[in-house]
Amino acid sequence: MAVGKITFTKTEREKLAEVLWLLNWISVLTGVILFGLGLFLKIEIQKWQEVMSEQGILYVPHMLITTGLAACGINYLGSKICLDCADTNKFLRWKLVMMPYIVCTFCYTACVLAGALLCYTIRSQLEQSLYLGLRSAMCFYKDTDTPGRCYLKKTLDMLQIQFQCCGNTDYRDWFHIQWISSRYLDMTNSAVVDRVRSNVEGKYLMDSVPFSCCSTLSSSPCIQHNLSNPAAHRHYDQQSQQLNLWRRGCQQALLDHYTGIMQSIALTVLLIWLFELLVLTGVRYLQTAMENVIRLGDPESESEGWILENSLAETACYNFNIIKNLGKCYQVDEDPNINIPTAAADQEVPPLQVRVSVTS
After folding, report:
1. SS3 state at 255
2. Burial of 141 by CB count in 10 Å (0-12 exposed, 13-18 middle, 19+ buried)?
3. Residue 109 vs residue 314, higher pLDDT
4. How far from 205 is each of 47, 50, 181, 245, 358, CA to CA, in Å?
5. How far apart are CA 159 and CA 153, in angstroms?
6. What is the pLDDT of residues 152-191, one digit of tens each?
7. pLDDT digits (tens, 9 = 90+) for 93-133
8. Any bridge partners for residue 6, and if so which?
9. How high is the pLDDT of residue 320?
10. How many other C-beta atoms can be found within 10 angstroms of the C-beta atom of residue 102?
11. Per-residue pLDDT reduced to its tens digit, 196-213
């Protein structure tokens, strides 16, 4: 039994073809939107790629860009097909193209849905990438004179100022790394030498943070050094100190930033997927209705259109049998007697000897 069977008159088929022509042109615009969203997401990720451990998450914007370009081409072709399908004679030119076109549209629509779901599921991968990338970038903060790393200090400072954050998870992360370059250390100072020697790895560690961690919301001067020793500061107030530094870690700040962008993109892509699903359903009805008109042989008669000619289970079983039979076409019969010489072939037949009697 057909799924979603609807009867169309000639006027309804023509109206359906015209509406689908318009919807396909709108779908071309949605393809441009997908391309723009993917390009925007790629640029946003590349802005802070220096603090990410890997660029594997770029497959999401790349998928949106590719899907957007495919949408423009497929829907442009669909607008031409749907416009010609209003006429039975013109439909015959596209009859063999309709099914491959519907399959391509279905695959494209599935990619749109996959892109929307990836935007929702990429958060955990992005979180891990930011954590490892920020930890590595902070270790190279001091290498301002090292080629390939000299930009990291500026990048981290701009990140902490722009997103009002400090450290990886919080400002205490700076206590565990040497973020001051060795060329600025006075190695003739005994206090500096003792601090370097006290560390197993020979690093100059201290309970201080870079200037970019200072909060612009604080009315008092920024306290950057000796943060774990309140007695080192005159009139130190632990409560007011909460506003002195940015309390949020940069990993969380960037994660929230990208999560907000991806959720907005995912919602937009999901709406585009619903729209494309509507167009795909209409094209399928138009195809089946026009094919039934050709079978009837009367362009003026009513015809039935459907989404599936049989039930879902029967359609799945039919397609499975087709795939299974395709595999059998390339199989060779394994006859045990093939290419095995017979005993008669191995033996040489002796020539026939004829005795002739000679009489005198």
Report:
1. helix
2. buried
3. 109
4. 30, 24, 11, 19, 126
5. 10
6. 999 999 999 999 999 999 999 999 999 988 888 888 888 8
7. 788 888 888 888 899 899 999 989 988 888 888 899 999 99
8. 305
9. 57
10. 17
11. 888 777 888 888 899 999
The 10 Å CB-count burial string (b at 16+, else e) for 232-268 is eeeeeeeeeeeebbbebbbbbbbbeebbebbeebbeb
CA distance 140 to 147: 11
Task: Give the span between the Cα atoms of 21 and 27, in whole angstroms.
Answer: 10
Please name the residue that has the structure tokens 């519907």.
102
The residues, ordered by sequence, that sit 6+ positions from 82 with a Cβ below 8 Å of its Cβ are: 17, 18, 20, 21, 24, 283, 286
Model confidence at 267, in pLDDT bands (50, 70, 90)? Answer: very high
Using CA atoms, how far apart are residues 97 and 102, in angstroms rounded to an integer? Answer: 9
Of the candidates 26, 14, 67, the one whose C-alpha atom is nearest the C-alpha of residue 293 is 14
Quick one: which of 97, 85, 80, 99 has its CA closest to 17?
85
Distance of alpha carbon 262 from the chain centroid: 11
